[in-house]
UniProtKB/TrEMBL annotation:
Protein name: Uncharacterized protein
Superkingdom of origin organism: Bacteria
Organism: Paenibacillus prosopidis
Length: 113
């Protein structure tokens, strides 16, 4: 059984490539027995803003590791450099991640980053 998707406020102009960002609790992920451990992978969410040439990507690093963290990166999609993102944020706190994703989506939509 999979957890529910996290509700996000997505401004106009974004294309969802994939979204598997669920309400699985990182604090409950303590070992390999955790029922939702497969939801903590490197490919959780990816959105593109075509007009502003930006890609937002969310993953869990290291993948399937209970000591991992969520990582948000923002890259220039016309010249992708995953090693040097425009923006990067790491946290285990799902609420912080939601807040930062929505912040980045809004800032890109308004042409500020």
């Amino acid at each position: 059984m999979q957890s529910k998707l996290v509700p996000l406020r997505i401004p106009p102009g974004w294309m969802v490539n994939f979204n598997q960002f669920t309400e699985a609790n990182p604090d409950a992920f303590k070992n390999d027995d955790y029922e939702y451990k497969w939801e903590f992978n490197e490919d959780i969410l990816q959105f593109d803003h075509i007009k502003n040439n930006r890609t937002v990507d969310l993953g869990w690093y290291p993948e399937f590791n209970p000591k991992g963290k969520y990582k948000i990166v923002l890259i220039n999609s016309s010249d992708p450099d995953w090693q040097n993102p425009i923006y990067k944020f790491l946290s285990r706190d799902i609420n912080e991640i939601i807040e930062k994703i929505e912040y980045v989506l809004e800032e890109v939509s308004n042409g500020r980053i």
